[in-house]
Amino acid sequence: MNGEGWPDEGEFLVCTVKRVRENGAYLTLDGYDEREGFVFIGEIAAGWVRNIRAHIREGQRVVAKALRVRRDRRSVELSIKLVSEERRRDTLQRWKNEQRASQLLRIVGDRAGWQPEEVGGHASELTEAFGTLYGAFEEAAISPGSLQDAGFEGDWIDILVELADENIVPPFITIRGAFKIEVWGVEGVNCIRTALQASETHCDEEAEVEVACFYDGAPRYRVEITAPDYKAGLDAWDAAVQSASEIIAGVDGSFQASHD
Known about the structure:
Elements: E1 12-21, E2 24-29, E3 36-40, E4 61-70, E5 75-79, H1 85-112, H2 116-130, H3 133-142, H4 146-149, H5 156-167, E6 173-183, H6 188-200, E7 210-215, E8 220-227, H7 230-249, E9 253-259
Parallel strand pairs: 3-5
Antiparallel strand pairs: 1-2, 1-4, 2-3, 4-5, 6-8, 6-9, 7-8
Helix pairs in contact: 1-2, 1-5, 2-3, 3-5, 6-7
């Protein structure tokens, strides 16, 4: 959204079908103060549209692309056929996330004793700091100190963090563990380095799993794993432990592993 409260050309929008006509349909742009846009029948679906009502109906929620925005005439030309299924799902999910975050922020306001206008003010500030309002709740669920780090202050932060922890599922989880490695033979540091590198080979970019090892002061080495869910993270942890332990088992040394 631009500063004038209008969508940008090329933006994908969640809309509600308000009126269906023979040559197209009027859509309400959700999140834009009830502004309307129009989608011509040729932009409803690919191919020839014989009966427009076979494709959309009044009250239906759809995702449309803003083709042309005329602020002087207060009109927006839209296309539904240019929205891929993947784009439609992603846009709807982001919209649902923002709706959910707005509801949670109202609860924060109720518990913190905010005036109605304060809710909007905090929403704008959080959106500016984190990109989206949902992003603020997401960051709070992942890292409770993220709001203070961004410069926010007040008792309401504890309320927001609590609600985020109860209601928001982060996009990834983090498993933090530690290796205690000692090598007494001539292999020494080189063997430990090889063991840690072997652990990091269990990164999987496609599965969005990352494994990273850090030196915390001999003989302790920190291991951090991020993954989209706990099972994937635990599988990576088990694989990392096995790879490192097998290498240390082949020399005169000891290996211990633990995680949170």
